[in-house]
């Protein structure tokens, strides 16, 4: 998949740099989609009583997209140099940084979930040390 994205980006790089407005037109709806799907799913998880880990998993699963499938369909149907393939290339370029940013939002949202799993961070986030009181 990474190889396909690199090749498509190489083929579409000129279109992205020479017509940045097209990339922005593709990116803005994606930004709104990721934010609304993530926030809505996180709120829904909390509303139905899910704990923090489950609500966060739900939110990231709902906000994530299957750009791999979209890229494959665009290439097969329209060709690697089509505008549709351009949209498929811009998608992951927007999705990855947005979802990484939402990780920080999710970490901040822990405080809105009751229970020990909400206040205890994973070992990857908080280094091991003496127990906190």
Q: Number of DSSP helices? A: 6
Shape: elongated
Strand content: under 5%
Helix content: over 70%
InterPro entries: Arsenical-R_Acr3, Na+/solute_symporter_sf
Transmembrane segments: 25-45, 57-79, 85-107
Keywords: Membrane, Transmembrane, Transmembrane helix, Transport
Protein name: Arsenical-resistance protein ACR3
Give structural notes.
By secondary structure, the protein is an all-alpha fold. The chain has one domain. The chain has six helices and no strands. Helix 1 crosses helix 2 (20-47), helix 2 (20-47) packs antiparallel against helix 3 and helix 4 (67-78) packs antiparallel against helix 5 (83-109). The chain starts with a helix and ends in a 14-residue tail after the last helix. 18% of the residues are buried.
